[in-house]
Amino acid sequence: MFAIIEDGGRQYKVTPQQTLVVDYRESVQPGEAIRFERVLLANGGAASVIGRPLIEGAVVEAEVVEPLAKGPKLEIQKIRRRKNSRRHTGHRQKHTVVKIVSIQVPGLEVVETPAPEQAAPQPESAAESGAGTEPSAAAAEAATQAAEDARSDDVAPKTESTGEQEQSSGQ
């Protein structure tokens, strides 16, 4: 199941147990619950609900993991040439990290699709595949012979040229 929510002018695709970084919210504590009520779309596996523009009664509940997280530092420099005038400032955007707890949409059944089991690949035995781990002597000899033939084809035998051919090609 997933939902698309709107928060702070941005849209986020969220699933249960997902960690999400949203705009900074003042006065929230770790473990506090947050509700996102602007749900644009919800998918329950077999069916989807699309809001026009929002889904009535749909709520995505989240829990605050980190109330104040800072983004990367941006450095801003403004220099006026030949004036010995410089301005240097920096900025770090504040964020709040939340974990999605549940997605509640009225009238939407959640159909859990089982995850496909990933079986470990089993090594083939030499008897089943028909080939050993090392190439046979006959195969090695055939490969060597093919390589020699290829080399001999690349080198063309030298032919003696007659003076007539050189004279006719020169004219």
What does this structure look like?
This protein is an alpha+beta fold and 171 residues long. The chain has a domain at 2-80 and 92-104. It is 18% helix and 41% strand. It has three helices and eight strands, in the order E-E-E-E-E-E-E-E-H-H-H. It has helices at 126-129, 137-154, 163-170; strands spanning 2-7, 10-14, 19-23, 33-36, 39-43, 48-50, 59-80, 85-104. The strands form two sheets. It has a four-stranded antiparallel β-sheet with strand order 2-1-5-6, with no helix packed on it. Strands 3-8-7-4 form a four-stranded antiparallel β-sheet, with no helix packed on it. The protein is flat, with a radius of gyration of 36 Å. It starts with a strand and ends with a helix. The mean pLDDT is 82.
